[in-house]
Amino acid sequence: MHVSSVPASDGSRATASPDGRRSTQAERSARSRSALLESAARGLSGHGYGNLVLERVANEAGYTRGALYHQFKDKEDLALAVIDWVDETWRQEVGRHIDHERDPVLALITLARGHAVFCRRDVARVAMALRLEFSGHDHPVARRLDGVSESLLKRCTRLISAGRRMGTIPPGPPARAVALAFIGAMEGAVIQLAGQAPHDEVLAARAAAGVLGIDHDASTSHPTRRPRGSSPRSADPA
User: Fold this and answer.
1) Which DSSP state fits 168?
2) Is 34 inside any structural domain?
3) I want to staple 204 with a disulfide (CB 3.0 to 4.6 A). Which of 89, 116, 160, 235 is the partner?
4) Residue 22 forms beta bridges with which residues?
5) What is the helix, strand, coil percentage profile of the chain, to 5?
């Protein structure tokens, strides 16, 4: 069935639905924002912030430069919105599975596997690309990235502390230090194994399990099994 479209005042396309109802301004705005964010995420992943051309972002999304400026005031505003959008997408596609997992070890392994799968998408590489570009800089983009990283670090720290209390993760360095190493091992495997699915997922989980001091295969087949040489603890330093 033919769906007609005409230019809208904001530079987007005003489309009519199959039932003849013309899309609302809010619907058009949501569609254009999503398309522009995805286009900008690809651009930031591939070219970085400094080389991002807003007109190209708009063209590749199928919109005019005016439509982009209707949604975002400048490149910085767009980059900050992309970081938030990617983070929210990660939470929906990876984080929700972790939130539903009651066993801390399985939650952490699920996180590593899900993160590896998520990072197969071009848009998922935004944070890694921007961290390299803004390393050591005091910039709003760097501060927003730090906030996202801190949120993930706190999540992993809580899970590690919970696993230690249950006796499924052995004692050792402070939970926050282990969480930092966990994230580093997971992301390092993902970077080095880019384009090598499904090995990226499997080896990211194994690398993360190694940092935790557990056997990956045993932890996934027997989630309540304690690591060799460990014993239940009621508390552990976080």
Assistant:
1) S
2) no
3) 116
4) 16
5) 65, 5, 30
* 112/200 Cα distance (integer angstroms): 10
Residue ranges of the chain with per-residue pLDDT less than 50: 1-9, 13-14, 17-18, 222-238
Phi, psi of 23 (to 5 degrees): -65, 145
Q: 173 lies in a domain?
A: yes
Q: Does any domain span residue 57?
A: no
Q: Is 195 exposed, middle or buried (0-12, 13-18, 19+ CB in 10 A)?
A: exposed
Looking up residue 152, the CATH number of its domain turns out to be 1.10.357.10
Q: Who's near 181: CB < 8 A, 6+ residues apart? A: 211
For the chain, what is the domain count?
Answer: 1
In a domain? residue 79: no
Look at residue 195 and give its three-state secondary structure.
coil
- What residues make up the domain containing 165? 84-221
CB 206 within 8 A of CB 216: yes
What is residue 19's predicted lDDT score, i.e. its pLDDT? 53
Give the H/E segment covering residue 153.
Answer: helix 140-166
Which secondary-structure segment (H or E) carries 14? strand 13-15
Residue 16 pairs with which residues in a beta bridge? Answer: 22
DSSP state of 22: B
| pLDDT the model gives residue 111 | 97
